[in-house]
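Slide 14.
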Amino acid sequence: MDSSVYVFAEDLRGEGVERVLDRISGYGVAGVTVGAVHHAARDVTPHGLSRLTVRHDGAHFAPPADLFDGLRLTPVPGHAAVFDGLREACAKRSMKLHGWTVFLSNATLGAEHPDVTVRDCFGDRGSPGDLCPAHPDVREYAVALARAVARLGVDSVVAESLHFLPLKAQRSFVPLGPMDTYLFGLCFCDYCLRRAADLGVDAETAREECARIVGRVLDGDPPAQGEVTRAALTAYAGPDVVAYARARSETVTTLVSEVASAVAEEGSRLVFIDSTGAVKGYADGLPTPGLAAHDAWQLGVDLVALGDLVPAFGALAYARDAARVADDVGAYLRSVGKDREVRAVLRPGHPDSDSLDRLVAKARAAKAAGALAVDFYAYGLAPHPVLDRIPAALAEAL
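Slide 15: predicted structure.
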């Protein structure tokens, strides 16, 4: 069974490539998934050079000039030397190297070019870090970025945030329910409106309905209760809004298709990860009831369509319960097709795994459900005793 450990660029810079790879190879994993492009964050890093690490938006390699010449959006410079010699260092240990790439979450680019970010039903661009996948400049940037990472000689380009992103307000003293939050997070930029209209959707009516419903809650009306489903959304917001939400999948599917083709042309392959599993369980490992594969449509992800276009998928199995991990992996396989590779991404420690036994049970469940790989997230965020659980988990999955 294939496997890897997710590694941040700052891990390699702070602890040294040789030291990090020696430790990870000692876990018995087949490779490392290294952050080639990441978004800004501030993380507690228990064994890092700094115990509180500030990450900035950045591409941690030198972008090939021919790919971005003439493009409006270009990668934000990061730690340019991270991948220097890394391919060779991995090969020396018979380890695979995967390039972890965050595509459309980039507040630096959004601040420099606000018109490429999502625009809500009120006409506001209040999510500067969320680049809209319908915008032509964003699409050109994503394809070029995928090619650039593939040219690093990686075995795969692991795509994160290559879809619409959910609304994440830092503070809200208004009790927005899940459906109100979803409607508030829909993008109604000119390109999204045009794409939906081209598919026969009354896009302007959908926008007006979202503004009316969310505006009513912001004015003090009680929010809608219950989870977001297509049936509930139809009853709450009407068929035009549901049709608009469905139209987003065409935007994402065509973009992912272009990116997958570009990666293949560069001699690598795409591993697609949608963020639904993280939306559901990132904070506490207790995901909301609907399975991630069933709710991926909320981010514009049509897994059935992507199953014909993408060779491999990562399922973010951020759950404490082994049965839930098995259910999520099984749902992904049923959606993308049994001939596709599904990689279960597990967190070896808090908040998902409070013991070795729990992690082992989840690795076993992922394999039994049909996962062909188990990946562990993430080296720099977990204490060494937690990372030391990985060999036992792999033993169950092999």
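Speaker note: The chain has a mean pLDDT of 97.
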